[in-house]
Write a structure and sequence with these properties.
CATH architecture of the largest domain: Alpha-Beta Barrel
Number of domains: 2
Structural class: alpha/beta
Helix content: 25-40%
Number of helices: 12
CATH class of the largest domain: Alpha Beta
Length: 415
């Protein structure tokens, strides 16, 4: 069941009309469906059955604490990449032992705070990070549990900005160096080796790179075992894509089964770090048409949401579905580019669309739950949108719209 549907020609989130949300909270506003989040979490969790696993939601995809709270209640752990995300997880009710810490630029402060708190595992990205963590752990008198993030040199066949597993990418450690570092880490008194980790990219739509990366990691794990290094878990990252337009990514069941069948003979716990595929299609962005503008070469629908609110089309040239909230309008068809208010020619949310809207009507950008609000900014001194979570017929304001004082308040005039 899709939890964003037209009911009496009005687009709804579960049982609530988006037009009513716009009346109450204004536009632009992010709207998330609680039922969709739950459905997508279970789509990954259920196929594992009783096989040992942890689903650690990738906080960077959408870090609203109410979203994290719902995932915690479902049983999720969390994959973080900053101290700020750590604090969000704790605020949402997560425990340090629910957390794995990824990211390639962890500061001494971040390592110190999270190790002292007792997080589950550090996914290390470099030789120097290993030595820094050993130093921090020794000062604290605590043992740091680690995985080393390998770079398996696998092409995820996705946009080059979100490919992370090739040799030329900044992420991870090449296999030969990783072997040496595991042997060094084994001798470090305040380091405990737990796993092997990788993440090859985002918005992956075929199984081939996924299975290739698993096979590469298993080969390394077997070689480490022969050297006397016992690996307990394999962290396969995230990256499974969602349908934005005509993509047909593997179903989560197919994805999970392809991993389990390869890992099961080696009795390894599997850690999964899904983000986009849990929250992406659980969110829409409501926006109002301010002007219909006819040009000599192109027509434009000028909306009140811009690249500061949702940057993916501008950053990645990503295609975003844009639909009318009222599906029964008497407006004439208008062929146009859908553009925002930002003073950049790249502020285009959709190119060459055909819409039936009048000025003042509402549109919805779909599939924006991931990397939407979390990548938003105050560019052009525009307040960040509100966020609401719909649960059946109930609407929860989970982040109020920013005020101008919120933006300007931290700044100071000169004496």
């Amino acid at each position: 069941m899709n939890h964003f549907n037209y009911i009496n020609n009005q687009l709804h989130a579960e049982q609530v009309a988006l037009s009513e949300i716009a009346k109450s909270y204004g536009t632009p506003t992010y709207v998330y469906s609680k039922a969709t989040i739950e459905r997508h979490y279970h789509a990954f969790n259920t196929p594992f059955a009783d096989y040992p696993h942890r689903i650690c939601y990738s906080v960077k995809a959408n870090s609203n604490i109410a979203v994290l709270q719902q995932l915690k209640r479902l049983g999720a752990g969390f994959d973080i990449v900053s101290l700020g995300e750590f604090h969000r997880v704790i605020k949402a009710g997560g425990k340090p032992e629910d957390i794995v810490f990824s990211g390639l630029a962890k500061t001494t402060e971040e390592l110190t705070v999270t190790l002292d708190a007792g997080i589950s595992c550090f996914n290390l990205e470099s030789e120097n990070e290993l030595h820094r963590l050993q130093t921090v752990a020794e000062k604290l008198g605590k043992t740091a549990t680690i995985s080393i993030r390998i770079n398996p040199d696998v092409d995820a066949k996705t946009h080059h900005h979100i490919t992370t597993g090739k040799k030329q990418n900044k992420f991870g450690i090449d296999i030969e160096t990783a072997k040496r570092l595991y042997k060094e880490a084994r001798k470090m008194p305040f380091i405990e080796i737990a796993g092997v980790d990788y993440h090859i990219g985002s918005q992956i739509t075929t199984l081939e790179p996924i299975t290739k990366a698993v096979d590469t990691a298993i080969e390394l794990i077997q070689e480490l075992k022969e050297s006397g290094i016992q690996i307990k878990h394999l962290d396969v990252g995230g990256g499974l894509g969602i349908p934005y337009k005509d993509e047909v990514p593997p179903h989560p069941t197919e994805y999970v089964n392809s991993i389990v069948e390869r890992v099961k003979p080696y009795n390894l716990e599997i850690i999964l770090e899904p983000g986009r595929c849990i929250i992406g299609n659980a969110g829409v962005l409501i926006t109002k048409v301010e002007y219909l503008k006819k040009g000599e070469m192109k027509n434009f629908a000028v909306i009140d949401a811009g690249m500061n609110d949702y940057i993916r089309p501008s950053l990645y040239d990503a295609w975003q579905n844009i639909i009318e909230v009222n599906n029964n309008t008497d407006a004439e068809k208008f062929e146009c580019d859908v553009v925002g208010p930002i003073c950049e020619s790249s502020d285009v949310l959709g190119k060459e669309r055909t819409l039936k809207v009048n000025e003042g009507d509402l549109l919805a950008l779909t599939s924006v739950g991931a990397y939407g609000f979390s990548m938003s900014s105050n560019y052009n001194t525009r307040p960040k949108p509100a966020e609401v979570l719909v649960d059946g017929d109930k609407v929860h304001l989970i982040r109020r719209r920013e005020t101008y004082e919120d933006m300007i308040g931290p700044e100071n005039l000169l004496d």
